[in-house]
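Anyone opening a protein record will find just a pair of labelled lines. With that in mind, the following record should read easily:
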Amino acid sequence: MRKKLHYFFCGLAVGAADVVPGISGGTIAFIIGIYHKLLAGIQAFDLQFARLFLTGRFRAAYELIPWSFLAPLGLGIVCSIFSLARAIIYLLETWPTAVWSFFFGLIVSSLFIVARTIPFKGLVNILPFLAGLVFAWALSGLESVSAAPTLIIYFGSAFVAVCALLLPGISGASVLVLLGQYHHIIQAVAVLDWPVLFVFASGCLCGLLSFARVVSAFLKRFPVGGTSLMIGLMLGSLRNVWPWQANGFPAPPPAPDAALATALICSLMGVAWPLILQALARRPE
C-alpha cells in the first residue's frame, strides 16, 4: 500500500507539470526515478497483450501489465490535471512572473540532476546536447498556429503533444500552445467537456503506445548520447519559461523591487523542489 501511495504522489507531480506550458512531465518522471519504469510499463501493452485480450483471455492479458505501478501513477496524473486546470489558469493570469520564475528554477535544478547521471565522453555528449539545445530553442520561438478546433484536430494535437511529453525537456502543453489548442483543451478539462476529452485521451493513448517504444529503444541503444540530447532539450526549453520576455526573446529582469524579490524566492523554491522530490524518491518505499 505504501508503494502504491508513493506512485500516486509521483503521478500528482507528473500531472502538475503536464498542465503547464514549458514544463515536461517527462522531466519530473526522470527526476523522481520512474522514467524508465514508465516507458517499460507503457510498452507492456504490446501485441501479446492485444492477442490475449482479443481472444478473451482477459486474466492472462491483465497479468502482463504492471498495474500496481501504472494504476496509482495514472490516477495521480488524472487527479492532478483535473484539480489543477482552473488553478493554473488563475495563477498564470494573476501572478505570471512568479509562476514562470518557479518553473525556471525547477528546470535549472533538473538540468544538474540529470547531468550527474551520465559520464562525459566528449563528442558523444556534445553533439547530441547541441542538437537538443538548438531544436528546443527554435521550437520555443515558433509562433502558434491557428487551427479551428475539431475532433480530428484534437486527436492529432493529443498524439503529437503526448509524444513530446515523453521527452524530458519538451513540454506537451507547449506543443499544444504551438498548435493553437492549449486553451481549448484546458477549458475542456475545466468544464468537463466529455466528447472533447474522450477524443483527446484517445490521441494521447495512441501516441503513448507508439512513441514510448521509440524513446526506449533510442535510450537503450545510445544511453549517453540520448541523455545528453535530453539535457540539451531541457536547456533550450528555458527560453519559454524565462519570466521576462520581449519580442519573443528572453529580456533582462527589471530593476530591483518587491516583484523581483518575489520572483527570486519563487525561483529558489523551484530549484529546491526537484531536490526534495529526488530525496523522497530515494527513501525506502
Remarks:
- Residues 67-94 form the longest helix (28 residues).
- The first strand starts at residue 245 and ends at 246.
- The radius of gyration is 19 Å.
